[in-house]
């Protein structure tokens, strides 16, 4: 897996917006409060001295995704307000998996989950500061669940949960009413997560858990357990699920999740994802996924209204978030690749990884070294349906190889013009692109 997630300017460059009375007010303005245990008490708590809070991430994949980024940035905002974060990567809860709305999760092996724990810990570390008075701490719930016997788990933890309450949880209820049903393992997930909160309260005096609002049942299982066992009041904050205004699911590109690991979602693809944000969604995305000030976001909101064709807000969003995840160098390369594809830059200056990422979604063809004639290339790449159509494209001045116009229908690409020794980018007209890979002799 890639170890390329970086904060380009350093965590020290990030700051909360001082125009808000307190961090709670900023969280609300940014649209990060969907539900909470006690809003007035939480605002008072977060406006006071440092508290310890936590958020959990389960290793159900080898990388975090954009949904997780909402939580990471929420954690960072609370840390910037002076509070102490506990980042929990669930070595034990990841072995079970929280219930999905539709079907049972596939259980991964202990070895796989253990490997993914390491990947996720490495990613989380790049979004929080592990230095200073309110430094973050990494925790793994396998540390306190692994030594516990099943009998102890049932006696010490399970006895505090009521089945009637558990089956009323939204996801559990939906699964119980489905053909799939729900296994005892996934049904017990909320008990495991509740135990996490109890353990972190005992060890670190943790008094706040954050998470997505779809996890509200799991979040409150912890607050209730602490209340029953310790007689103390602790809190939970549920952020809203980010949705697109057109009803499509946020965080998906070409039907696939947008991952934070650059080998799973390239910096180019990440940049393009944010660049394609609709006008109706871009301001909300700026609030949630950037540290831009209220004044700057309001300025960009005006730009959306007055000159939407310039896409200033989208470009600012794409640059900011891609830089946050992959660094400014990778982001600059992604922008250069996008420009070069359409003749506004030099394709030869792109490194191979960036070139491959930029052409990944294009129609592609593989040809032999003896098929480098422009007519054969246009047909092989399906930019032209027939050789006669290809000749017409060339004669009309609409054929380009690596952004160089080809005007001779008998032209043959020289092997020295291949990008990185084996790639070509073909263009018909201004916008129709294809990639070609030349196979080894």
Automatic annotation (TrEMBL):
Superkingdom assignment: Bacteria
Short motif 'KMSKS' region, span: 249-253
Catalytic reaction(s) noted: tRNA(Tyr) + L-tyrosine + ATP = L-tyrosyl-tRNA(Tyr) + AMP + diphosphate + H(+)
Entry-linked PROSITE patterns: AA_TRNA_LIGASE_I, S4
CDD domains, per database record: S4 (cd00165), TyrRS_core (cd00805)
Entries under Gene3D superfamilies matching the protein: HUPs, RNA-binding S4 domain, Tyrosyl-Transfer RNA Synthetase
Chain ranges of the RNA-binding S4 domain: 373-434
Record GO terms (molecular function): tyrosine-tRNA ligase activity
Family of the protein in this entry: Belongs to the class-I aminoacyl-tRNA synthetase family. TyrS type 1 subfamily.
Function per UniProt: Catalyzes the attachment of tyrosine to tRNA(Tyr) in a two-step reaction: tyrosine is first activated by ATP to form Tyr-AMP and then transferred to the acceptor end of tRNA(Tyr).
Protein name: Tyrosine--tRNA ligase
Native organism taxonomy: Bacteria, Bacillati, Actinomycetota, Actinomycetes, Micrococcales
């Amino acid at each position: 897996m890639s170890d390329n997630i970086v904060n380009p300017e350093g965590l020290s460059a990030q700051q909360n917006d001082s125009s808000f009375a307190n961090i709670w007010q900023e969280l609300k303005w940014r649209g990060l409060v969907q539900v909470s245990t006690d809003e007035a008490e939480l605002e008072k708590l977060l406006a006071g001295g440092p508290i310890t809070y936590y958020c959990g991430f389960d290793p159900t994949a080898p990388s975090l995704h954009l949904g997780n980024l909402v939580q990471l940035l929420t954690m960072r905002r609370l840390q910037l307000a002076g509070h102490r974060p506990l980042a929990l990567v669930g070595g034990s809860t990841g072995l079970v998996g929280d219930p999905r709305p539709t079907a049972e999760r596939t259980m991964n092996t202990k070895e796989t989950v253990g490997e993914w724990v390491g990947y996720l810990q490495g990613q989380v570390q790049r979004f929080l500061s592990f230095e200073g008075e309110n430094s973050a701490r990494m925790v793994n719930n396998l540390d306190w669940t692994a030594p516990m016997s099943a009998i102890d788990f049932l006696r010490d933890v399970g006895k505090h949960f009521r089945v009637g309450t558990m089956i009323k949880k939204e996801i559990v209820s939906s699964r119980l009413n489905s053909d799939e049903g729900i296994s005892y393992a996934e049904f017990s997930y909320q008990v495991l997560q509740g135990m996490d909160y109890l353990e972190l309260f005992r060890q670190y005096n943790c008094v706040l858990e954050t998470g997505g609002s779809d996890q509200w049942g799991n979040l409150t299982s912890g607050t209730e357990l602490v209340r029953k066992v310790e007689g103390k009041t602790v809190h939970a904050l549920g952020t809203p699920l980010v949705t697109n205004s057109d009803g499509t699911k946020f965080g998906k590109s070409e039907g696939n999740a947008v991952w934070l690991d650059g080998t799973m979602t390239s910096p180019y693809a990440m940049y393009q994802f944010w660049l394609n944000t609709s006008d109706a969604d871009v301001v909300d995305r700026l609030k949630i996924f950037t540290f831009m000030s209220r004044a700057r976001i309001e300025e960009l909101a005006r730009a959306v209204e007055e000159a939407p064709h310039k896409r200033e807000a989208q470009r600012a969003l794409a640059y900011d978030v891609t830089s946050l995840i992959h660094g400014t160098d990778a982001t600059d390369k992604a922008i250069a690749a996008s420009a070069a594809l359409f003749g506004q830059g030099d394709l030869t200056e792109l490194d191979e990884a960036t070139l491959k990422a930029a052409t990944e979604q294009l129609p592609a063809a593989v040809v032999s070294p003896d098929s480098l004639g422009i007519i054969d290339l246009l047909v092989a790449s399906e930019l032209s349906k027939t050789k006669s159509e290809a000749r017409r494209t060339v004669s009309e001045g609409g054929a380009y190889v690596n952004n160089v116009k080809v005007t001779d229908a008998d032209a043959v690409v020289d092997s020295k013009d291949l990008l990185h020794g084996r790639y070509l980018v073909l263009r018909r007209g201004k916008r129709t692109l294809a990639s070609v890979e030349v196979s080894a002799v």
